[in-house]
Amino acid sequence: MTAEFPVRTALLTALLLAASPVAAFELHSPDFTDTSPIPGRNVFVGFGCTGGNQSPALSWTTPPAGTRSLAVTIYDPDAPTGSGWWHWVVFNLPPDSRGLPAGAGDAAKPTLPAGAVQSRTDFGTAGYGGPCPPQGDKPHRYVVTVHALKVDSLPLPADASGAMVGFNLNAASLGKATLTARYGR
Questions:
Q1: What is the Cα–Cα distance from 22 to 174, expressed in whole angstroms?
Q2: Sheet holding 85-93, edge to edge
Q3: pTM score over 0.85
Q4: pLDDT tens-digit profile of 153-169?
């Protein structure tokens, strides 16, 4: 009976530790909240849109254990392309990053951490390109995601397409946090 007690105690302890709540990996922005409209300062300039084309400020909580790098994407699944639209693709962010300031998506300004890569969006260039759905479409969803990755870096060229980066993000994923805002005109 005394040999069973330590085994039972160890099993009970393991079960309690497994049931302990793990802090959620969450993404936030002071520019918009989940399901809120995207403000004009974040809207694209061009294609008939007259926004500020400033990437939103983002912050996130501690990523899952084992995270070795991070990535941020903004994707419009409602774009009338048959494949959506990549608005921002950033990868190889350091694992201790906890956010990006407003305007970090300006490819002409070095505001990202060393080693981070802003890849090609569906606008055909690197850097942030804000929302600009077709006139008269219902508001589109813009899925902002921070990806926690189990690799130190993605082995991709700086001009990799959003789809190629997305494929590699999913292959190396430990977890992700998202928020979805909307914009229509």
A1: 14
A2: 117-118, 85-93, 69-76, 140-149, 173-183
A3: yes
A4: 999 999 999 999 999 99
